[in-house]
């Protein structure tokens, strides 16, 4: 900007100086009266700046040269002359002071004018220094403003870092830790909210893990206590009452079996927590039919199959069998042997539905969501001494999530429970 401004102004000034020189030349030529230059009259009336403009007029008469100089011209002409390359009309005699040189001959009279560009170079210098000064001041003010602004913008981030350091230093990590949310800038506010959301999720996960460990220990402690009790019972009374040994060994066997199932389920769950699953397009009708043929005899209830033919879905076939097995075992456990279990497979609205319905004890509305939690067992199940770990449906839920299957529970009519599985169509 500075350069273009200087260029335009300088060019305009130079043009006006050249016009001045031409005007001066015209006025000089018109002062020529009766073949004689009225030099005195011209000098008296011309308003030339003798510091900046030099005039020389000469002509030859009767083999004699008559020369007129304006004030200071002689001095000027004694100085060493240099030319600017490519600009013939510009010459430099003073240091850094260029002059525009105009030469004309008219009726044997030679006119020479030198107009100095002092004002132009002066203006150039002035603009140059002003630009440097303005740039320097802008740089200083800009640097100061940027540092103030940077501090202001960084402050919330610094606060965030400080809070994180304080939280990190406090051992153990306090529960429900949250960062203070700044009002602005918006980006840091959003970032803090997201971090807080993340912290809440981590907190929930930690709590769930703690709950899981305490539930698992509790569930394992029950059979261990029973086993130890029977072992001590045998140690104390086995010799005197050998008839109790068989009974106690029976208890120890069933309790250790319970423990084995529990540990297997726990291992299964922890494996599923870490794993991802590959799904393929499978013929659900065929897989279910084959599976039920092999399973039918292991439960006392009758299984009714209502399968639409050739239904395909995207699912992992091992997961599918594991889910059906767990749901059928539950259906069998929580209903009487006379109540049939119905398995229905059909397509509706571009989705594949698999329903497993029994006529058993049913699940109340407030417990329908809870039964998927780890170790959750409805009291009715505990009271009736139905064996179980409370992990079966948690494993089903995890498998359903991995396979992107939606699973819902509803009441079966007239009684019992219905599990509805929604698959992605293959
Ligand atoms: P469990 O080992 O106790 O069967 P699950 O996780 O499989 O554990 O099931 C959790 C609870 O849900 C069971 O204790 C039971 O009360 C209830 N439940 C599951 N399936 C059925 C069903 N088909 N009918 C009635 N109640 C059920």
TrEMBL record:
It holds the Pfam family HATPase_c. The keyword Transmembrane applies. GO terms for cellular component: plasma membrane. InterPro entries: HATPase_C_sf (IPR036890), HATPase_dom (IPR003594), His_kinase_dom (IPR005467), HisK_dim/P_dom (IPR003661), HisK_dim/P_sf (IPR036097), HssS/ArlS-like (IPR050398), Sig_transdc_His_kin-like_C (IPR004358). Residues 215-426 form the Histidine kinase domain. It is found in: Cell membrane. The keyword Membrane applies. It catalyses: ATP + protein L-histidine = ADP + protein N-phospho-L-histidine. Keywords: ATP-binding, Cell membrane, Kinase, Membrane, Nucleotide-binding, Phosphoprotein, Transferase, Transmembrane, Transmembrane helix, Two-component regulatory system. Its EC number is 2.7.13.3. One of its GO terms (molecular function) is phosphorelay sensor kinase activity. It is an enzyme of class 2 (transferase). It is a multi-pass membrane protein. Its main location: membrane. This is histidine kinase. It comes from Companilactobacillus crustorum JCM 15951. The lineage of its organism: Bacteria, Bacillati, Bacillota, Bacilli, Lactobacillales.
């Amino acid at each position: 900007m500075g350069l273009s401004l200087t260029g335009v102004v300088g060019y305009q000034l130079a043009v006006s100086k050249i016009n001045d020189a031409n005007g001066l030349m015209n006025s000089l030529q018109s002062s020529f009266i009766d073949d004689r230059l009225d030099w005195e009259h011209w000098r008296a009336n011309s308003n030339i700046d003798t510091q900046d403009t030099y005039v020389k007029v000469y002509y030859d008469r009767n083999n004699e040269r008559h020369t007129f100089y304006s004030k200071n011209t002689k001095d000027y002409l004694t100085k060493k002359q240099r030319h600017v390359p490519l600009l013939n009309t510009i010459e430099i005699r003073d240091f850094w002071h260029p002059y525009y040189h105009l030469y004309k001959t008219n009726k044997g009279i030679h006119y020479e004018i030198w107009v100095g560009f002092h004002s132009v170079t002066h203006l150039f210098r002035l603009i140059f220094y002003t630009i440097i000064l303005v740039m320097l001041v802008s740089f200083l003010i800009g640097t100061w403003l940027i540092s103030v602004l940077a501090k202001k913008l960084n402050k919330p981030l610094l606060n965030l870092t400080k809070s994180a350091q304080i939280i990190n230093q406090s051992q153990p990590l306090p529960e429900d830790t949250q960062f203070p949310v700044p009002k602005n800038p918006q980006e840091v506010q959003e970032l803090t909210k997201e971090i807080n959301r993340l912290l809440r999720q981590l907190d929930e996960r930690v709590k769930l893990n703690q709950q899981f460990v305490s539930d698992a220990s509790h569930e394992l402690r029950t059979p261990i206590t029973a086993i130890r009790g029977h072992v001590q019972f045998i140690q104390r009374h086995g010799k005197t009452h050998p008839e109790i040994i068989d009974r106690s060994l029976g208890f120890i066997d069933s309790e250790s079996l319970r423990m084995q199932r529990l540990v297997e389920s726990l291992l299964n769950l922890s494996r599923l927590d870490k794993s991802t699953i590959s799904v393929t397009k499978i013929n659900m009708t065929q897989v279910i039919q084959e599976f039920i043929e092999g399973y039918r005899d292991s439960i006392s209830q009758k299984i009714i199959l209502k399968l639409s033919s050739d239904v395909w879905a995207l699912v992992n076939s091992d997961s599918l069998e594991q889910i059906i097995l767990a749901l059928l075992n539950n259906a069998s456990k929580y209903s009487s042997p006379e109540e049939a279990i119905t398995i229905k497979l059909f397509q509706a609205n571009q989705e594949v539905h698999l329903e497993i319905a029994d006529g058993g004890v049913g699940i109340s509305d407030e417990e329908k969501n809870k039964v998927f939690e780890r170790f959750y067992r409805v009291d009715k199940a505990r009271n009736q001494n139905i064996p179980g770990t409370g992990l079966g449906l948690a494993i089903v839920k995890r498998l359903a999530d991995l396979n992107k299957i939606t699973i819902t529970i509803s009441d079966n009519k007239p009684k019992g429970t219905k599990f509805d599985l929604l698959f992605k169509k293959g």
